[in-house]
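Memo to structure team: turn this sequence into structure tokens by end of day. - J.P.
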Amino acid sequence: MMNRLGVKCRFTLRNWLGVLLLTAVSVLILSPAPSYTQDRGPSPGGEPSADVARGKYLVENIAMCGQCHTPRDENGVMIRRQWLQGAAVPWTPAQTQPKWPLLAPRIGGIPPASDADMIKLLTTGIWTSGKQLDFPMMPFRMSEADAKAVIAYLKTPSAWN
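Reply from structure team:
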């Protein structure tokens, strides 16, 4: 494959996605995690529960869900007041991909599937159809505890306001 300057380039979309997935997994494994407990309710001081805080960390710093699931303004800056409310996928593949989605769905507020289905997606990469989602969605392999924390965060008003 030749790039625009006529230089031979062996780096394809498939290789790029592999590097992106490997980087995300490495960051997830090597990043120090905040302390985490299994409580589900808000803390007495009004601060988010440990699950919500862990979910926010995973969504915003590891999985980086906002990159695709949040609309952008005319300058390409994410519109925070529409955080995780669905958006046009900001990238297109270098080569035509028939299943490449044009829109990333809303995931903040009420997720697009039941908690059980969302946990299945985040732990196995399998969607409600029984198949893996198409790229650019990464086939995550989170622990069940991390998947539950992500769902807890996605359901909080801070994830969709």
